[in-house]
Design goal:
The protein is of the alpha/beta class. The chain has one domain (about 30-145): Nucleotide-binding domain of ferredoxin-NADP reductase (FNR) module (Rossmann fold, 3-Layer(aba) Sandwich). About 30% of the residues lie in helices and about 15% in strands. The strands form two sheets. A five-stranded parallel β-sheet has the order 3-2-1-6-7, with helices on both faces. Strands 4-5 form a two-stranded parallel ribbon. The two termini are about 15 Å apart.
Length: about 150
């Protein structure tokens, strides 16, 4: 799946592709060491939009390590699933809205040992970081994937 963003960095290149073109995809790049996050006893993963993509790999690796975490919360997919839709039909009976302090208070443990990983559109990331700061999460507890 490819999502086109009007002001996206890759969009101009992607728009030039034609059916049948071959695309070479590399492994993710970056120098962030995942090891301590993969074995965290309490992990909260916040993802929105295409931000779920890098989280799939992170969670796959975590499961390969026999998921030593006592709690893994991933707002979309994982052990404890909480779907929160910002746009939904009238038939949707689950949670609605956007990321909020109330959502954190209901689902985040807020322990000093909890690790939080955030990935998604800029507005989502800024909202998440603001809420985490309000709830006294330290900078060392939070990692933001930016792409």
């Amino acid at each position: 799946m490819i999502k086109i963003y009007e002001d996206g960095l890759c969009t101009p290149t992607i728009l030039k592709w034609k059916e049948g073109d071959e695309v070479q995809i590399s492994d993710p790049i970056g120098d962030w060491d995942l090891s301590e996050w993969l074995v965290a006893d309490d992990l909260l993963v916040l993802a929105a939009g295409s931000g779920w993509t890098p989280m799939v790999e992170l969670l796959r690796r975590k499961l390969e390590l026999n998921d030593s975490a006592k709690k893994t919360r991933y707002f979309v997919v994982c052990k404890n699933i909480t779907h929160v839709l910002s746009r939904s039909t009238d038939e949707w009976k689950g949670m609605r809205g956007r990321i909020s302090k109330e959502l954190f208070q209901d689902h985040a443990s807020q322990k000093s040992t909890q690790r939080v990983i955030v990935c998604g559109p800029d507005g989502f990331i800024q909202s998440a970081l603001s809420i985490l700061a309000d709830l006294d999460y330290s900078v060392d507890q939070v990692h933001v994937f930016q792409g």
